[in-house]
Amino acid sequence: MTESSEKISDKNSTKRVKFGFGPHLVLDGYDADVKRLSSLQFVYGFLDKLPEVIGMHKITPPYVFYYDGGDKPEDDGITGFVIIAESHISIHTYPHKKFLTADVYSCKEFDTETAAQTIIETFSVSNFNKRVIRRGKEFPQTEQALDQDRKILA
């Protein structure tokens, strides 16, 4: 998770501090199920359940919106997001193009493979591109926070 570490001392304690904020999963899905991509209720249900699947905690219900595409009706679709205590999850669907983009961003470690596989299976994605970006490479974390992350990944 981390790029570097150092000891920080104060008069009360010495803590080992490591750096790194957390993972950001970015997934583009192609040849996805058009009915699922088109359904406000389906996208809402997906956003409602994914945080629990990956060990995160919702602080708002999901918000989902239909966009008619404006001047480009073929770009219609659904945008949805859920704010989690650890950051956010978002999705944008393009049913006419059988395409979706999804982001799962967290300040805590999570199983990016489980999250990606859940998205792929939920929307019946046939082909995808996935990246995991390590965010906040210079963000300091104490050993206590790192211990919590290790428990999640165990």
Task: Name its key features.
154 residues; S-adenosylmethionine decarboxylase; six-stranded antiparallel beta sheet; 4 helices; 27% helix; disordered N terminus
Question: What can you see in these coordinates?
Answer:
It contains 4 helices and 9 strands; from the N terminus they run E-E-E-H-H-E-E-E-E-H-E-E-H. The chain is an alpha+beta fold and 154 residues long. It has one domain: S-adenosylmethionine decarboxylase. Strands 4-5-6-7-3-8 form a 6-stranded antiparallel sheet. A 3-stranded antiparallel sheet has the order 1-2-9. A hairpin with a 2-residue loop joins strand 5 and strand 6. The longest helix is centred in the first third of the chain and has 14 residues. It starts with a strand and ends with a helix.
Order of helices and strands: EEEHHEEEEHEEH
CATH topology: S-adenosylmethionine decarboxylase
**Overall pLDDT confidence:** 83
Helix content: 25-40%
Biggest sheet, open or closed, and with what strands and sense? 6 strands, antiparallel
- The SS-based structural class is alpha+beta
Strand content: 35-45%
Number of helices: 4
**CATH-scheme architecture:** 4-Layer Sandwich
Under CATH, the homologous superfamily reads S-adenosylmethionine decarboxylase
Q: What is the gist of this entry?
A:
This protein is an alpha+beta fold and 154 residues long.
